[in-house]
Design brief:
- By secondary structure, this protein is α/β, with parallel strands linked by helices.
- About 30% of the residues lie in helices and about 15% in strands.
- A nine-stranded mixed sheet has the order 1-2-3-4-5-6-7-8-9.
- Strand 8 and strand 9 form a beta hairpin.
- It binds iron/sulfur cluster.
- Iron/sulfur cluster binds next to loops.
- Its cofactor is [4Fe-4S] cluster; pyridoxal 5'-phosphate.
């Protein structure tokens, strides 16, 4: 293995503040391949696949990848490849039919008792398997126009106990905007829990600032954060520092992962992920079967294999480190548990 100190193209020691890291994410496949000392043969398919869904990956995340390894489990999650352009039957643009569960712009109401607010469309990292990789964020996000109707929708439905900030990645928005949303929700008495689904504490751990903890954890609402890591190599000391700070502030921390062929589809990878999460104070929550989105079919793991993998994890790990294996089926009032 080539060591990080041998990296000659760009030294990655000082990443800057989180906003600088977000703005400075690598978007050029040529640069990414060069930084990781990978073959230029990977470039033409990467450029082609980028036309459908651009590359985007922050330096702090690249820094955890192995130089010269095209199969690195973190690289495989972000590097566009030729298979993404193949049209595979059953894999579509809106795999969860979310665009029909959208009562007002910026709101997705799929499940009883909870709803999602689409805070924004941008992410710190573009994950190649993302089920929202074709989502029309530009037509459907919480902006100045949709804000009042979204809040009115939540106020008028007293069954909504939990609001989930989603996206895109909600933590890609600035704290002022997020605090405004949370302050408004704080005044709606039937909302009890605020959940954030985010990959930022994993890909840019510096996003967990004092300001973030202040607006998130210091309100009336019970704070829950669901991070997203798929492989143990994603969780390094910087991620642990971020999660410990959240934990100290009283935030319940959970992880959702996607079962991805060639990345975490082995018992050892899943067990190591559970162990790494636990050391970071995070419990495994969901292991999702891949949603059938166009461009991601090469990551698909058959259900039978998934069931046998989870059984092996159960045989080797304490129950609290075994995630629920689930599939999302459009129209169902919750995730479908695959037992
Ligand atoms: S961070 Fe989440 S929403 Fe953004 S691309 Fe990755 S999986 Fe999709």
């Amino acid at each position: 293995m080539i060591t990080r100190s041998e990296l000659s193209v760009q030294t990655i020691n000082d990443f800057g503040c989180w906003q600088e890291q977000l703005a400075g994410a690598v978007t050029s496949p040529e640069l990414l391949l060069s930084m990781l000392q990978l073959s230029t043969k990977l470039l033409p398919p990467a450029l082609k696949a980028c036309q459908e869904f651009p590359l985007r990956v922050p330096h702090a995340y690249i820094n955890r990848m192995e130089l010269g390894n095209p199969n690195d489990p973190l690289l495989r999650q972000v590097l566009p490849i030729g298979e993404e352009c193949e049209h595979i039957e059953g894999f579509g643009l809106d795999p969860l039919a979310e665009q029909s569960q959208n009562p007002t712009d910026g709101v997705i109401h799929k499940y009883h008792g909870r709803l999602l607010l689409i805070v924004g469309g941008s992410c710190a990292v573009n994950c190649r398997f993302c089920f929202r990789r074709h989502f029309p964020y530009q037509d459907n996000r919480l902006d100045r126009d949709s804000w009042n109707s979204a809040m009115e929708y939540i106020r008028s439905d007293t069954s909504i106990k939990e609001v989930i900030l989603s996206g895109g990645d909600p933590l890609a928005s600035n704290d002022r905007r997020l605090e405004k949303i949370v302050t408004e929700l704080n005044h709606i008495s039937h909302v009890e829990t605020l959940r954030i689904h985010t990959r930022l504490p994993v890909v840019i751990p510096d996003r967990v600032t004092d300001d973030l903890i202040n607006w998130f954890a210091k309100k009336r609402l019970q704070p829950v954060m669901v991070i997203h890591a798929n492989h143990a190599n994603e969780i390094d000391e910087s991620v642990r520092e971020a999660t410990f700070r959240l934990k100290q502030a009283g935030v319940t921390l959970l992880n959702q992962a996607v079962l991805l062929k060639g990345i975490n589809d082995s018992p050892s990878a899943l067990i190591q992920l559970g162990d790494a999460l636990f050391k970071a104070g995070v419990l495994p929550y969901y292991l999702h079967l891949l949603d059938p989105v166009h461009g991601a079919a090469h990551f698909d793991v058959p259900e039978a294999k998934a069931k046998s993998l989870i059984k092996e994890v159960m045989d080797s790990s304490p129950g609290y480190l075994v995630p629920k294996l689930v599939r999302e089926i459009p129209g169902r009032p919750g995730k479908t548990w695959i037992s």
